[in-house]
Amino acid sequence: MTPRILIIAGSDSGGGAGIQADIKTVTMLGGHAMTAITAITAQNTLGVQAVLTVPTEMVIAQINSVVTDIGVDAVKIGMIGSAGTANAVADVLESLDVPIVFDPVMVATSGDTLADAETIAAFERLMGLASVTTPNIPELEALGGKDAVLAHGTHLVAKGGHAEGNWIVDELYSPTGRLRHWEAKRFDTTDTHGTGCTLASAIATGLGDGMTIEDAVERAIRFVRIAILSAPGLGEGHGPLGHALGVIPFDEIEG
């Protein structure tokens, strides 16, 4: 059965991150993507020019609409929009017995802030519900560090992309300690817009399809790296990934 992945996140008009990256990722990995959009952004590779949050009741209506008809095998949470929405989403997700991947989006790749202090404080409830939480280094610091996140009972993927050096180390922790780590050479590129969204959605798709957390994370990391290598080179700033991995299905079929 096709895994049904509910994505609760913001829209990126530039198509590189957010809901757009999530849908591409879930689709490429064989899932069916459903969405509850929390915010609309005017955004491109250079930055975020404007943000309009979606009213909390509309976010919840989107979630209820797909849950009651299509059903859900896993949930991915990205940009949440507001503290009120974070708490309302937590209320709804408490009744769902499915894997939840929480990407605590606070700052865009361009450096623009996407979550205020009150919203970040409300992340506590979402981490308590999450099967996996996937912060980058600045986000992990803002959440109080590794031990503070693990205290919520979630698995932690501590992403190493923001560290210095030529090698990236991504670490997977269970609530009781480190399970795995992956080391890979850093690519010399600025086409990294949407890597966090893509990784979290890839993990959610794997979990929704019955993969273990370790296997889902490993495949997600591989997918992100291949997508970076396949980037189309668009825009003047941090360009989008190549989620199709350089493949055009009709060309493949006709060839």
Written account of the structure:
This protein has a single domain (4-254), classed as UDP-N-acetylmuramoyl-L-alanine:D-glutamate ligase. 38% of the residues lie in helices and 23% in strands. Strand 7 (155-158) and strand 8 form a beta hairpin. A 9-stranded mixed beta sheet has the order 3-2-1-4-5-6-7-8-9, sandwiched between helices. With 255 residues, it is an alpha/beta fold.
How many domains in all? Answer: 1
CATH architecture: 3-Layer(aba) Sandwich
What is the N-to-C succession of helices and strands? EHEEHEHEHEHHEEEHHH
Describe the main β-sheet briefly. Answer: 9 strands, mixed
Low-confidence stretches: none
Radius of gyration: 17 Å
| Arithmetic mean of pLDDT | 93
Give the distance, in angstroms, between the N- and C-terminal Cα atoms.
29 Å
Dominant shape: globular
Task: Write down how many β-strands occur, each being a DSSP E stretch of 2 or more residues.
Answer: 9
Q: Largest sheet, order of strands side by side?
A: 3-2-1-4-5-6-7-8-9
CATH class: Alpha Beta
Count of DSSP helices? Answer: 9
CATH superfamily: Ribokinase
Strand content: 15-25%
- Structural class designation: alpha/beta
Tell me the CATH topology: UDP-N-acetylmuramoyl-L-alanine:D-glutamate ligase
Helix content: 25-40%
